[in-house]
Amino acid sequence: MKNKIRKFCILLSIFIICQFTSGCYDSREIDELAYPIAIGFDKGEGKFLRMSLQIAVPTKVAGGGEGGGGGEGGQSSVSITTLETPTIYSGLNMINTYVSKQINLSHVKAIVFSEELAREGIEKYINALMRGREFRGTAYVLVAKGSGNTAEKFIREVKPELESNPAKYYEMVLNAYGYTGFTAEAKLISFYRNMTSYTTQPVAVLANVSEFEDSDDITLEYSTYKQKGRDYPLPGDYTAGNMPKVGNIKTEVMGMAVFDGARMVGELDGEETSYYLMVEGKYGYSYVTIPDPQAKDMFVLLNLKQSRKPKKRVEMVGDKPQIYIDIKLEADILSIQSGINYESIEKIGILEKATEEFVKTGIERMVKRTVEEFGSDTFGIGESIKKKFLTWDQWVAFNWKEKYRHSNINVNVDVKIRRPGQKIKTVPAHGSEKEEK
Amino acid sequence: MADFKNILKYLFLYHEPDIQEEFILKEKESEKAGKEKTSERRKEISEDKQKTDNKSKTSKESHESKLISKNLTDNIEYLKKVYSIPTNGDIVLREFEIVAKDKTIPACIIFYDGMTDRTIIDLAILQPLMLLSNLEVKDKGKELLEYISKHLLVHNQIQITQNMGKVIEDINYGGCGVFIDGIDAAFACDVKGWEHRGVDKPETESVVRGPQEGFTETLRTNTALVRKILKDEELVVEDVSVGKRSKTPCSILYIKDIVNDSLVEEVRRRLKGIKVDYIFDTGDLEQYLEDNPFMTTPQIIATERPDRVANALTEGKVAVVMSGSPFALVMPTTNIDLLQSAEDTYLRFPYVNLIRIVRMVAIFVSLLLPGLYVAITNFHHEMIPTDLLLAIEASREKVPFPSVVEILIMEFAFELIVEAGIRRPGQLGPTLGIIGALILGQAAVAANIVSPILIIIVAVTGIGSFSIPNFGLGLSFRLLRFIFIFLASVAGFLGISLGLFMYGIWSCSVKSFGVPFMAPTGPKTYSNFLEQFVRSPIWKKEKRPDYLNVKKVHKQAKISRQWSQDNKKKDKQQKYEIQK
Amino acid sequence: MEKKIIFGNREAISLLLIFMCNQLFLSFPRNMAESAGNAGWILTIYITVISLVLFLIISRLYKNFEGKDILDVAEFLGGNIGRILVGIIYVIDYVVIISVILREYGEDLKIISLVQSPISFVLALFAIGMVFGAFFGLEPLVRLGAISVPVIFLGFLITVVGSIKYFNFSNILPIFGTGLVEILIEGPSRTSVFSGLTSLFLIAPFLRSHDNFKKSGFIGLILSGLILTVGNLVYSLVLPYPSTTSNFLPIYQLSRLIEYGRFFQRIESIFVLVWSMTALIYLSAGLFFSAYIYKKTFKLEYHRPLIIPFGIIIFTLSLIPKSLMETMFIDNSIIRKYAWTVTFGLTLVLLILASIKIKVKEGRHKDEK
């Protein structure tokens, strides 16, 4: 028994020695650290980088313990700092000299690159981020449109109105693509994965500060409807920043940036982004406005859903790849402005056909842009031809990326309208007709 | 320096492990192994006895080998010396005379006042001896002895002995001794009648369903309570006395044709091998009996409930009841037993499963929650959801202490309230509650000594530790919790897993009366692995635990709900008849 | 006097699983990706099949040596010299592997959570647990193994299920990765993955019968082959080929991906509990075996006094590599390429020679008759 007492004592003393001699090296109290929520990268004055950190101020966010009651107006719940630095981590070091708490990047929700930087290539930054253990793979990658220090501008303008916590703002706004279809899912991990992939190319969410200060300033000048050959803009015909809107929330996310490798090569607007999601198979549901097939200047509003994963197929005809995309959609009717009875069995086919045509032309146009304009396989179509190769070397020798630039596109869209909402037919308004009699 | 050398020696030199009883799964083998080892053990015991006999010859010898003299005055002299009469106040030595034939024979009776039943002494011993003794008696002393025992002493429990030690032992335990001149023997009559508590509700293990009787401080009442439930002639209540001076009576309870003989032998050996002057409660006894005194977890279950003891006995376990203690000890114990409450078998199985899950969570929480909190807030910030992280950071902004100190302060305050709550007189209960709630809940936060989130952690931990059914296990977790806080503060999750590993290894190596402590899981002995955590319907538990190596494995028929089968038969018959 | 240790199949299988699968948490999937590209899982299956065949031969040969461990076989074959030779080889094998893996686990945790702590501190924590575990002997270790293997497996399962939504089946195409021929050539030397099988030859006497030996060996091999294959497959499903070779801790990368809504994100630290538990059981068992083999080789009376010296030797050895890269080079290019010579090569040679000796003896007996 004595033996056991001693053993116990020895163990205890070993532990205590451990504690006192080596201490707790990594132990950091939560309140000794500062947590940036978003981090922005611009092309700096010097050769390298201008970094902006949006650091959460916990007492403002959480309302400071007792009698706060969350989000006191006036004072901002974030503190923003910007500085010039050659690299990310050295920048953090510099920031730590004047920000009292040590910077911990484990809660960064959004990583914003300015368009200039993105067009130059962001491989070195993404690699640096992935190497550190603090970054979370679920952070979103954004590209701030325009020239100049757009990332910094964007971060400075993020002043969430509905929530006191800016982290929640980023999470909610960037996850909204599930029910708007206007932004892409561009998480850091998938960005990195696609950046190194031999098939798929990465994308990022487009972001910008609204260009309109006052409702009188609003113009449709920047909209992409003319390029698409429309007479009027539909809801998706915008990219971030030029949405015809004003209000307290100045920041916008819409559309996406297309990358080739780690270099940004172009951008897609909101509508194209939702087609991108359809081809990717990540389209949730959203309200889609379709011109009425039988009444001019009237719209049909559909709640479009993706019923099945899209089928993508590539066949080589000679040296040219033939791309077949097969998309299956479902829709519920939300509104029929013209009052034409599309709900009936006879006429539903017309609406389905029109929708199919509408979506098909959109997708074809978009894919063609990626093929011809960007030359970047954003959807990972190459994945479906990979199976024809037995070994990696053969696949690399095939050089899919080069081949992709010369491919032909065949899109097949299948839309089924399932239910017409609460009304199964439109009963027209009656007032004026009575008076006439 | 010498100490250091010794420590080094203890570290580097090998010490033989204590040889423990090994149960091997198959019954026959186990019996063989058991016998071999028990025979070894018997040798040891006999050696021990010889040794102790040699040692303690001086004091004890006088009583035990002292024979009762024929001369009454000699005996009275001796008794007066032993009981230091007249200094001793509560001993009564009454001299009287028996008139037998023409002779008047002097006699005396000796007993403790207060421990004996006076009316019994008056009516069943003194009255017949003094008044009804003038019947014809032959002259010879031996026949006088027989005559008195067979005709005069109308009391129901009488022992005749020639040994003075035996009489003294009985007197000490509420009996009375009757000495008669001319006879070299004495009568030890069992007239126990001290004040005691009646059978009451078990205070510490209350249940909603099930019997509401608890053990009392009286040995025979306790054994009777168990026998009342079991009603089995194979139930053996074997008496042993523990304590060199106190000679506290204990009983080993077991069911003869179920229990493994080597287990009973082991319990007997350990009980007899306790060399101590006095013993007061089964709490003491437990510490003398258990295999591994340094293990924090209890290795013997102490229970207040006769039904629980009875249940354990039917499984093939052994119980020890001690006079003066309302707690019975049940052994061997495995970790699963500690997690079960008496109610578990009485409730229907779906409810029990819910309760079991709650209990598992309670154990996890009471052991690890503060440690995890420290680990997460000090090492693994990234896994806290951002909203919660900012809330914690905001609430900790004005707190001056590091979170380890903070949690230690609160845990200590909590332990303080618990301790005070047990010791305080009944009337002060509400006051204590108010002080505790106010100081810990409100004021500490308002004064920025601790953060509000920590209050929740400590409160949940506290509640968790009280919902563990076994009191000892709850205490053990309250102790281990501090070790885990410490480990977490050193290395975060790595520290915690190091702690869990060490605790796990230790638990796996411990044995309780030859049964591995982690039995049904550690060495897997039972085919139904989940059975131990999740309870299946009661009629599915057909076998007794495998690790006990009992003589009869099945405790109910394959189909114990025989009536359901009968019904089916009837139905078939009926159909058959109708078809006819 | 040593206690007679006996344990069941379940405990033996758990021990084997821990011995063979712990590298899944280290760099194993990356090694496979480096050898076979995106077809690492095919390589793993191939290795498993080779090992199963080899083990089939071994278990056939072992039939004559029921209840004997590999050292007894060596003694039967070559007397004291044979035993000492084989014993020393085994001790070196164990000590080197354990020290490298100790270092890797230390580095592993240093990268995951204890960034600022010196490596010696992290290693010391492991070493304390290792010595503590080995002190209590094999029996509690295998019991704890039997309890914790389901928990560890559950942790692994959560990682797999959590990363399901990142699966991209085109990642494992082209199906043969760097080429079938290369896989075929690479395979045999990669059977070193199952070097943990040596522990089975050491616990053979504790397993009561040859049937148990065979059964636990096969089940252990098949299960661990399965787990390693699934681990590899999941890893290459989630990440495309070139980047699979870039991660130091593949399974940790997978666990980083797990997220359930906004609340459960970055819960990879919880897996520290699982991994370090695996590591501690593995290291303690390894340390116990090194001491035990040493004891048996030189016919010493006790093994316990050897534990602390061996612990210190392993701890010191683990500090020798200058960097993580060097450790990984040793692990990947030396141990995982040549350990099979001890696991399968040496065992097979010993058993074949011993079987021949038995037959020769029998022949003599017959002649005498």
Description:
The complex is a heterotrimer of chains A (437), B (580) and C (369). In chain A, helix 5 crosses helix 9 and helix 10 crosses helix 11. Chain A has 437 residues and is α/β, with parallel strands linked by helices. Chain A is globular, with a radius of gyration of 27 Å. Helix content of chain A is 32%, strand content 26%. About 2% of the residues of chain A have low confidence. Chain B is α+β, with helices and mostly antiparallel strands. Chain C has a single domain, classed as Amino acid/polyamine transporter I (Up-down Bundle), CATH 1.20.1740.10. In chain C, 75% of the residues lie in helices and 1% in strands. In chain C, strand 1 and strand 2 form a beta hairpin. Chains in contact: A-B, A-C, B-C. At the A-C interface, helix 1, helix 9 and helix 12 of A face helix 5 and helix 10 of C.
Residues in helix, % of chain C: over 70%
Strand proportion of chain C: under 5%
What is the highest CATH level, the class of chain C?
Mainly Alpha
Mean pLDDT of chain C: 84
Spans of chain A of at least 5 consecutive residues whose pLDDT stays below 50 are: 64-73
In percent, how helical is the residue content of chain A? 25-40%
Number of β-strand runs of chain A:
15
Largest interface: B-C, 36 and 48 residues
**Structural class of the helices, strands and pairings of chain C?**
mainly alpha
Summed over residues and divided by their number, the pLDDT of chain A gives a mean of 82
Instruction: Give the CATH H-level superfamily of chain C.
Output: Amino acid/polyamine transporter I
> First CA to last CA of chain C: what distance?
40 Å
- Rounded radius of gyration of chain C (Å): 21 Å
Give the distance, in angstroms, between the N- and C-terminal Cα atoms of chain A.
Answer: 111 Å
Q: Looking at the structure, what is the overall shape of chain C?
A: globular
What order do the helices and strands of chain C follow? HHHHHHHHHHHEEHHHH
Most strands sheet of chain A: 8 strands, mixed
How many strands, what sense, and barrel or not for the largest sheet of chain C?
A: 2 strands, antiparallel
